[in-house]
Design goal:
The complex is a heterodimer of chains A (131) and B (155). With 131 residues, chain A is of the alpha/beta class. In chain A, 40% of the residues lie in helices and 20% in strands. Chain A has a 5-stranded parallel β-sheet with strand order 2-1-3-4-5, sandwiched between helices. In chain A, helix 2 runs parallel beside helix 3 (64-72). The longest helix of chain A has 13 residues, at 12-24. Chain B has 4 helices and 7 strands, in the order H-E-E-E-H-H-E-E-H-E-E. In chain B, strands 1, 2, 3, 4, 5, 6 and 7 form a 7-stranded antiparallel β-sheet that branches. Helix content of chain B is 39%, strand content 26%. Chain A binds chain B through residues 10-14, 16-17, 20, 58-60, 86-93, 96, 107-109, and chain B through 15, 18-19, 67, 70-72, 83, 86-87, 89-90, 93-94, 96-98, 100-101, 106-114.
């Protein structure tokens, strides 16, 4: 079952890296949406069906944390799993993110194997996606 | 003032190898080749314990190859030329995250700024690379200088 995925990062390079890594990891991607910040991401989420969100934290206009808070305030969006992709290594921040509902954390740089394992773990196997 | 050159060098080598499959070696500043095409410097700052900034200066010509390697396309590809500076900023971003872990461990939380890019002349690059606390490396024969600037309290 193909997954609709939203990638949220102000760096176009990172968005390309995530897209390429998903392909290398053989994650079955249906539609791949991109957003440069949390505000754009919320607009996409309001219009499109998304199975999984990959998001950075530090972004201009609206960062990842604020985006996640907005998602949790929305009955439909709060069911969409979010994986944070960041350069930070703070265990404190990672715990804080998970307490706010983030399902997993990937630290850059990352391998296709790690990406696949995280997607598999977060979605409970690709076949369990609801799209 | 504590010298973090070894940390900078180790982190940079590991990150660029994992990110872009580019291999680097630490060299003395005097061994760095000149870059007639000029240089770019990516900079960012961080707040936490400690506070400070990280500067990464590279040969301008290294950036398309960096972007090409990251994206898996030829350096001459139009997409690469458009994304070369963005690739440099992202390299700095990743290096910074890992440097901070090396400096402070995995507990402290840092707030990082979005990296910015400036052009750098030969004299400015030389002055930066000759600082005692600056890590100087060769990446596929491209000169690289990496400087960590900590606030006085963080040194």
């Amino acid at each position: 079952m193909a997954l609709n995925i939203l990638v949220v990062d102000d760096s176009e390079t990172v968005r390309d890296i995530i897209a390429k890594t998903l392909m290398m990891a053989q994650v079955p991607v249906g539609e791949l949406y991109n957003a440069a910040n949390g505000k754009e991401a919320l607009e996409v989420l309001g219009e499109k069906w998304v199975d999984l969100v990959f998001s950075d934290i530090n972004m201009p206009v609206m960062g990842g944390m604020e985006m996640i808070e907005h998602m949790h305030a929305n009955d439909l969006m709060k069911t969409i799993p979010v994986v944070v992709v960041s350069t930070e290594g703070s265990a404190t921040r990672i715990e804080d993110l998970k307490a706010k509902g983030v399902r997993a954390y990937i630290r850059k740089p990352f391998t296709p194997e790690l990406m696949r394992n995280v997607v598999d773990e977060v979605l409970g196997g690709f076949d369990n996606a609801e799209s | 003032m504590q010298n973090h050159k070894a940390l900078l060098s180790t982190v940079f080598r590991e990150v660029i190898e994992a990110l872009a499959f580019m291999f680097s070696e630490e060299v003395d500043a005097e061994e760095l080749p000149a870059s007639p095409e000029g240089y770019l410097r990516a900079s960012m700052s961080f707040e936490g314990a400690p506070c400070g900034g990280l500067d990464l200066a590279v040969s301008r010509n290294m950036c398309p190859e960096l972007a090409g390697n990251i994206l898996g396309v030829e350096p001459e590809d139009e997409r690469v030329m458009q994304k070369a500076e963005d690739a440099l900023k992202e390299l700095l971003n990743m290096v910074c995250g890992h440097v901070l872990t090396g400096l402070a461990g995995e507990e402290p939380v840092f707030d990082l700024t979005v990296p910015t890019i400036q052009s750098l002349g030969a004299a400015e690059f030389a002055a930066m690379s000759r600082r005692e606390d600056v890590a100087t490396l060769l990446v596929d024969d491209y000169p690289v200088a990496l400087a960590l600037n900590l606030s006085v309290e963080g040194q």
